[in-house]
Amino acid sequence: MSLDNDVRRAADIICNAESVTIISHIDADGISTEAILSQALTREGMAVDSVFVRQLEPMAMRHVQKDDSLKLFTDLGAGQQNLLEDHGLCADEVLILDHHVGQPCGTAYPQVNCLDHGFTRMSAAGLAYLVAKAIDPTGTDLAKLAVVGNVGDMMARENCGLVGPAREIVQDGVEYGNIVVQKPDLNCYGTSTRPVHVCLGYCDDPYIDGISNSTSGALRFLERLGVELKTPRGGWLVWEELPFEDRRKIISALAQQLIAHGRETDRLLAETYTFPDEPERTPLRNASEYATLLNACGRWAKPRIGGSICRGDRGDAYRDAEHMLAHHRTVIRDLLQYILEAGVTELSHLQYIHTGDRFPDTIVGIGAGMALSKLNWKKPMMVLSAMVDEPEVTKVSMRTNEWALARGVDLQEALVEASAEVGGAGGGHRIAAGAFIPHDKEEEFVDSVNRILKRQFASADPDNS
Ligand SMILES: [Mn+2]
Known about the structure:
This is Phosphoesterase. By secondary structure, this protein is an alpha/beta fold.
């Protein structure tokens, strides 16, 4: 079966349902997925109800009502099919749209998973859009949300732009008129909202000597170029507002700076996606900042506010989300500072830190990713954290980078295997994965992950074990 066939079958299952309950994840991908499907189904006059969960685990299943509706699991479910079975759900009342690694299961739940078709660079929001389009081909306004979900799940990172079916979705939005493709553009976060030197100072992929991690260094660099960085009234311009010539001048100077320090220039430029129908200088203006706004809503347990924004609410929901985003940034900054100051423990093939109950377990993964680029980036980073509402359980988040993936590392595999050994459960992706383990098995677990990573590095390069 091709992806098209799976999508068509999913659309048919949905159209034949009396009513639908969407069970989705609380991150940007899960929130945009829910918004795409619920809007598409509402437009068809169907009854839709939605549930957001942080993780599909036994405790979360109590939020899944036992009624006659079709249970549509999105951005989760593939790796928890046994849980669905244990919950008493049969194959004809479930549909899974997911892009996470699946789990063998006795019940053959119908599903669309892009991994089954070799597409590793597409998220659940991309699948949701394809299904929505199979139901109503005219609903191409929803492509924009699919791009937000894909970018939010880092699907554009490796190739500096979306590829494959996720890239085809971009084209629908371009034709509809709510997406503009910028190519090539600066591969940097915050191009719609941050002063240019702040934008560059926070950029560490690529790492630019004298500029990355130093907004003052970035400002000196820009001033030397003689580029006008402020408006006539004295406010800072953002990248998006700079004249084309100035942007080109900055990019070529950055390329020279990379070359001067013997670094690659291939990650300096990326294809980016801006939204002309959104107000300038807001996080809604481009896909990556929009995704961060949705992530902030999810991490602070308000996914429905993110959902309202996806549906066009620019009033109360948007103001609430902006507050959450500001709070989100403050806490992440504190978390990163804590990791750097407290220091990590380095084992042979990983580095780790336990943050106790100082930070919410929903954000420690972001901290792990940010810390990785500032610490020993060759060793995958693990953050363990206590769960305030479940003291017996420790949450584990791991992050690595493309460098390690190219050398055989697969965090998803490592955490699934190591957590199963201690009676926990893990999942995710090769580059970013998480697990829940019993609190008293932490030490054993960390050693086991280190051993598995050693094996993975060794199997890709037998000379470098
Ligand atoms: Mn996802």
